[in-house]
Amino acid sequence: MSKQKSLNYFLLLLSFGFYCLIAFSIDRYETASLLVSFGLLFLIYIWVLQSESETEISFWIFAAVLFRLCFLFATPLLSDDFYRFIWDGRLLAAGIHPFAELPRYYIETSSGISGVDLSLFNKLNSPDYFTIYPPVNQFVFWIAAKISFNSILVSVVIMRLFILGAEIGSIWLLKKILEYYKMQPKSVLLYALNPLVIIELTGNLHFEALMIFFLLLSFWLLTKGQLISSAICFGLAICSKLLPLIFLPLLINRLGRKKSVIYFLVVGASTLILFLPLLNTEIISGFNQSIGYYFKKFEFNASIYYLVREWGFWKYGYNIIQTVGLKLALYCTATILLYVGWDALRSSKINIQHSTFNIQFNALTSFTIVLTIYFAFTTTVHPWYITTLVAFSALTEYRFTILWSGLIFLTYVGYSQDSFSENLYIVGTEYVLVFSYLAYELIWKRKRLPV
């Protein structure tokens, strides 16, 4: 066995060991152990990316799947969001709309619903807020509840199988798209091996995994000229998380007016059909309240908002999130629309003979910019949010997303055994480094991005 192969196997086994530690042994408040483990995994990840050999891609894709399998039978230790997934699923299994009432209602009224009890309620991180999860997620929650016999671990395993399937599908799609456009095959590892992606999606059960899969599938089908199928998959992405709605304006210029109308109609119809089983006045009211709370109450790892918040403390003496959150959302919308207009002007000047490539030219690059604008203005940026940017990075020349995926994990420093206190020095360092590198890529590199 060559020295290179021996080293690869050693790094695989070392990484596997650290992923198992994170899966089964390290709580989120064990800061030193968690950051050392993640840091070593990230260094191995960077080393693999810097390796010049293209013959080892299959080996590291296999490793990427193996690392995800480390988490299969583990109850997440770094996130407690999955308890709400289980709560919603058990309500659905009992025939109750998950938006019908706040969780506290079922405890105060002693509802008697199987599995919807005080022990689960006490594990919820937002018992006084309506659920925010759209129908694709709710379907997975329902399946997990139906066949788990009220076992939390069995529910976790079932949901993780869905996420693992989506993750493997995303890796396969990235590989196909890279081959189709004759881009560097090794770029698939930017996403497949990224420790943040592995830990936050498969490990911590975050359903960005399904959204990313459906977005990539939609993009691939559009590349192959399958307009209707692509639009249906885009609808599935929206019904996994509402975020892809911000990408739709970018498709108008790439598809042309006539195709855009057809595409948007199919996306709208698909989304409506998927929402129909849950559609009533309760879900409309619940979503409105949840979105309002998101902009008026939730704050975590923000950039522009934290600067504005500090100004508010200085001028008014209190947290102005109640008013500034929605204002920043409007400024964000205006900025995105300005970028969409500029993007349309730029794209209209590009003349490429390959018609399919012309439709797709620079699409994911523009998606990356729009999503980054959104994250810059929002009041909350959890680590798993940027996994979508990491997926896009495999198909663009942007690498600030990789830097961000390493730095954002430092936000776990704020957790203690029974509380959370955000370290603003870490947040400030994170955004100074990330936005500085983004500025470098936008201004000085000036590369034409292929997709």
Overview of this protein structure:
The chain has 451 residues and is mainly α. Helix content is 67%, strand content 0%. Helix 1 runs parallel beside helix 3, helix 3 packs parallel to helix 10 and helix 8 packs parallel to helix 11. The chain is globular and about 65 Å long. The protein starts with a helix and ends in a 6-residue tail after the last helix.
Task: Output mean pLDDT.
Answer: 89
Uncertain runs? 351-361
Quote the distance from N terminus to C terminus: 39 Å
Percent in strands? under 5%
Secondary structure: helix percent: 55-70%
- Total number of strands: 0
Number of helical stretches of at least 4 residues = 22
Helix vs. strand class = mainly alpha
What Rg is obtained from the alpha carbons, in whole angstroms? 22 Å
Q: How would you sum up the major sheet?
A: none
- Overall 3D form: globular
The sequence of SSEs as H and E is: HHHHHHHHHHHHHHHHHHHHHH
Sum up the structure in keywords.
single chain; 451 residues; 22 helices; 67% helix; 0% strand; globular
Report a brief summary of the structure.
With 451 residues, the protein is mainly alpha-helical. The chain has helices at residues 3-24, 31-50, 57-69, 82-93, 103-108, 118-121, 135-146, 152-180, 188-192, 195-203, 208-223, 227-238, 249-255, 257-275, 281-296, 304-316, 321-348, 355-360, 363-377, 387-393, 400-407, 424-445.
What order do the helices and strands come in, and which of them pair?
Blueprint: H1 3-24, H2 31-50, H3 57-69, H4 82-93, H5 103-108, H6 118-121, H7 135-146, H8 152-180, H9 188-192, H10 195-203, H11 208-223, H12 227-238, H13 249-255, H14 257-275, H15 281-296, H16 304-316, H17 321-348, H18 355-360, H19 363-377, H20 387-393, H21 400-407, H22 424-445
Helix pairs in contact: 1-2, 1-3, 3-10, 4-7, 7-8, 8-11, 11-12, 12-14, 13-14, 13-17, 15-17, 17-19, 21-22
